Amino acid sequence: MDTRPNSPEGRDIRYHLHGYTNARKHQESGPLVIEKGDGIYVEDVAGNRYIEAMAGLWSVAVGFSEKRLVDAATRQMSKLPYYHDFGSKSHSPLIDLAERLVQMAPVPMSKAYFTNSGSEANDTAMKMIWYRSNALGHPARKKIISRKRGYHGVTIAAASLTGLPNNHLSFDLPIANVLHTSTPHYWREAAPGESEEQFSSRLAVDLEKLILAEGPETIAAFFGEPIMGAGGVIVPPAGYWEKIQAVLSKYDILLVADEVICGFGRTGEMFGSQTFGIRPDIMVLSKQISSSYLPISALLINERVFEPIADESDRIGTFGHGFTGGGHPVAAAVALENLKLIEERDLVGNARAVGARLQARLRRLASHPLVGEVRGVGLIAAVELVADKAGKAPWGKPGALGALVNGLLQQNGVISRNMGDAIAFCPPLIITEAQIDTLVDAFDRSLAAALPQVRAQD
What we know:
Helices cover about 40% and strands about 15% of the residues. It has 16 helices and 15 strands. It has helices at about 10-15, 25-30, 55-60, 65-80, 90-105, 120-135, 155-160, 185-190, 195-215, 240-250, 270-275, 305-315, 330-345, 345-365, 400-410, 435-455, and strands spanning about 35-40, 40-45, 50, 110-115, 145, 180, 220-225, 255-260, 280-285, 295-300, 370-375, 380-385, 415, 415-420, 420-425. It has a 7-stranded mixed sheet, sandwiched between helices. Strands 1-2-3-13 form a 4-stranded mixed sheet. Strands 11-12-15-14 form a 4-stranded antiparallel sheet, covered by helices on one side. Strand 1 and strand 2 form a beta hairpin. Helix 6 crosses helix 12, helix 9 (about 195-215) runs parallel beside helix 10 and helix 15 (about 400-410) packs across helix 16. The chain is globular. It starts with 7 loop residues before the first helix and ends with a helix. About 50% of the residues are buried.
């Protein structure tokens, strides 16, 4: 790190408070300052090049240098640099994007509503659900169920949905009326001798018990990611979503599919809901909708959700919710061009084909002494690291081994992310099989470098 006070690193330490960062440790170690990007690669201010194996934050589908997105932004900026959708106003990019999203949805949807981030979208979904309950004359039906280790964002409501302790500690979260049910992590949570189907059945029973204990008349909705992302890339076990949806249907509870990570090709289908047979009432979209070139997110709602909301807005005189930048014309134009690229270049098919290479190569590492589990679908995967394979035990403090290997991986030219002891891989959808091999080879070298350190401290 350049320690000069006027260096980028020095000025960052002096002026910038980072998200998801130990602020005191950052003052000592400083940032990795990324200066430019090209395809699946990014480059730091010192000229070091890295494979960006997390696509930024699970999000840069088309890579870091797509000129067509730059041109789409430039054209729209020159024509209409800003407008809004308050008071029945609209603009062409927003209309086109709403139409496209509703038409591409894997189940019938009625309307699109635009926000700026996944967190805002999930927050808005909660407000819509509460608004709908009141419209239907069900004022007690306000409780929301999500899952332990689920991730739905960081606003006050969305962070409450998130089931990770560090998103709650010292923030006085979760708020009232947010409940959490079991994590569908078969490798970590299954009972001895329990099959995946049996495990899924038990989790469905857990959910039903929670609903009955709280009172079905008080439960409005269930939020879930098709694959749990920041909680460790948890792939649902066999039968899970079928059994969960049966419970929700039994008690007339809305289902919200948080597709912020899975949407637009990540799992080898356009949406994770298609991969796992999910039939949501609300879909939450962000990240790959614009490859995160500009901030934009969306909710898709079906008629069951829209009609009561429309009636209530008529009774009150307005739907009193909205964002200054929601559906921004430049972001909408970029999103439209990004979706064209995903379809024209068959990046969903690439995620399926090249994703098979990623999954196969990572699974060859399953016998490594530090590898507990390899999991994933398409171009999203995680490798859970352990010091003791038989006992699935961590190396010292949980997360220490993940941090060690993640640091070594960066030294080997790959930027990833460890969620505790799980190392995640979520590269841009444009990645090739040869680039997958380079990525996994670097990970293999990182495991080899970590092993002597782990054994030395056993």
